[in-house]
Hints:
Blueprint (H helix, E strand, L loop, with lengths): L4 E4 L5 H12 L3 E3 L11 H10 L6 E4 L14 H29 L2 E6 L12 H21 L4 E8 L5 H6 L2 H10 L8 H12 L10 E4 L7
Parallel strand pairs: 1-2, 1-3, 3-4, 4-5, 5-6
Helix pairs in contact: 1-7, 2-3, 3-4
Amino acid sequence: MNGRTALVTGTSRGIGLAIAERLRKDGAKILAPTRKEMDLLSNVSMDAYLASLQEPVDILVNNAGINRLGAGTEASDRDIQETLQINLMAPLRLVRCLAPSMMSRRYGRIVNISSIWSVVTKPRRVTYAASKAGLNGMTRTLAVELAPFNILVNALAPGYVNTELTRQNNTEEEIEAIRKTIPIQRLAQPEEIAEFVSYLCSEKNSYLTGQVIVLDGGFSCL
Length: 222
């Protein structure tokens, strides 16, 4: 990826941090805006950050996301709006801004970090599942639209990953119970997710586009 510039959102920890570190190792120049620099809840903030860029972006990884637990009868308007904004609307806005330059240069790689909960589900994931299912649909459509310009668009849907967010939403006892339900018998490490993102963003990937790739240790097979 030498000479390529990659914009990665949500890099302060977990999967996003691992992705940024891996792409940097691969030779890409990493743009990793903090929330202060680009607040995904604010269209004004996003537009200002994008307007400030001094170089074209070759690779976009939409990783930032929030997961506020709640049943359909419990979800507040604020939780619904903010989840959809960060997980779905912001990625589309970033693509809308950055894709024209990729099209003119006839090169681009876009990876959207989706979730296993866009494929299977469990209680109290309604807004999160809806946002990630929307991201999958966005991925497929953009892949069709941008393929003639050598821009490949894919989504990666991780299962349970050993991150702070996972431990925030599950107790240690719950995580141990989850581990036993995964055929590989463990949670993924963020670096394993980053490894696959690296392939999708590289020139080694020359044909794979429009796919939602589930990386879950076999969990969704059961």
